[in-house]
Amino acid sequence: xxxxxxxxxxxxxxxxxxxxxxxxxxxxxxxxxxxxxxxxxxxxxxxxxxxxxxxxxxxxxxxxxxxxxxxxxxxxxxxxxxxxxxxxxxxxxxxxxxxxxxxxxxxxxxxxxxxxxxxxxxxxxxxxxxxxxxxxxxxxxxxxxxxxxxxxxxxxxxxxxxxxxxxxxxxxxxxxxxxxxxxxxxxxxxxxxxxxxxxxxxxxxxxxxxxxxxxxxxxxxxxxxxxxxx
Length: 230
Known about the structure:
45% helix, 11 helices, 6-stranded parallel sheet, globular, hydrolase, AB_hydrolase_sf, alpha/beta
């Protein structure tokens, strides 16, 4: 079987180490590219992130993308900007919808909190919201890992997510196949917000929040493998 080039894009408040934790579940038929952009401060928009990531990949590489949360927002930009390179997209706990006005206000508050208090103060209360049930040991491990993420990078990412575009029409019209892997108990992105627009190519994981790679890694890996290898 030919190896598939897989670009793995991490979410907000984490970095490429999420994929080091998850990749053993994927199997060996992939060549993995897992850029880390948690520290980037030179990207004002998600399009900027996408362009910078694309420029870091081997020239003329064709690849499938798995984007977790913020990584999914970047994946949408990659698919829109470089459709000749993007073969398939997996949106893992992510959405094509823009922020609501209420969410934009909350993004501003997050940026202000980060600027005043720093990453370590923010990350501890933030992480439990990503899990469907209390996984205190895993949360503690991740909190300790990510408490030193550069605060300037988190602020830049927060503002870029706040101002992201609406990709509803793009997802419905593009010939690039999309798969949505969603948590039934996700407090950030509800399955209903996606299935209102798309009924097929959706996997809903029971008893899972926003962190399927930790809460149900086998099921996430199976869904990715089945989608990418068709």
